[in-house]
Task: structure prediction
Amino acid sequence: MRKLGNTEIEITPLIFGTWQAGKRGWVGVEDAEVIEAMRAALDAGITTFDTAEVYGEGYSEDLVGKALGDRRDEVVLATKVFANHLKHDQVIEACEQSLQRLRTEVIDLYQIHWPSGAFGSEVVPLGETMGALNALKDQGKIRAIGVSNFSKAQLEEAMTYGRIDSLQPPYSLFWRGVEQDLLPYCIEHNLTILAYSSLAQGLLTGKFGPDHQFPKADNRSKNKLFLPPLYAKAQAALAQLKPMAEAHHITLGNLALAWLIAQPQTTAIVGARNVEQAVENAKAAEVVLAEADLAEIDSISRTVTDHLPADPVMWAF
Result:
């Protein structure tokens, strides 16, 4: 277990992610299987679950509530308010809706999902949003405040209005922009990083071949890592990583997760659409990599990340 930021909340190094549970932007996800996967993850030792109001417009939160409502005392729940609900009263209302869907009286970690203005949303002063979050914290509706997809400047500004305990950025072996200035800031201020797309949306599992094509309804069809020229570089890197995974008797995905949670302040959000995936992912928490292994993985990783665009958004939406 690890402490969340400067709180007394204890989270697991692996966090169950539930974007896929919202269904929108995903193909072939079944409710019953996802519910079983969440419960299997909890049985396997993953006690922390991350969702958001925007995942299927509340559908994901509702499934999380159905899956874990009767085991609330065993889990830490994190959710997010979207960029179009950042006015004071909107934050309060969004939180109330999330509490109802999650079937809980308190959200352990409540996060701003995207900065104000993202996706054409109205620009709202950060101080107004933080004022609402601080009020929710004072009322006992939420226990900690986090931000997601913030730049260093936005994170610094948020910290002037109240305590921020976590940052949720895209971070994986194949997407490492957070290391430039955000990771050092989080280390300095003891913020926990909740890395999303920690398996690069499944790319780091090695299950997608060189010619794989996603249906247009799948958000990964727009992921820059799955498009040329990055996709070919990723495939070459995976071929180098595979013997390392085999030497440790683990999957490629768990090698990537073990590397990620070995980074300072970093936990990894990883999704699963069935019990098998959930149980397999949980094993990554037990993997211990030597310094030489971490260095070699780092070197292979850079054959991909050295060619990434400067834009921090992973998708060409």
Notes: The radius of gyration is 19 Å. Residues 2-203+250-289 form a domain with the TIM Barrel fold (CATH 3.20.20.100). The chain has one domain: 2-203+250-289. The mean pLDDT is 96.
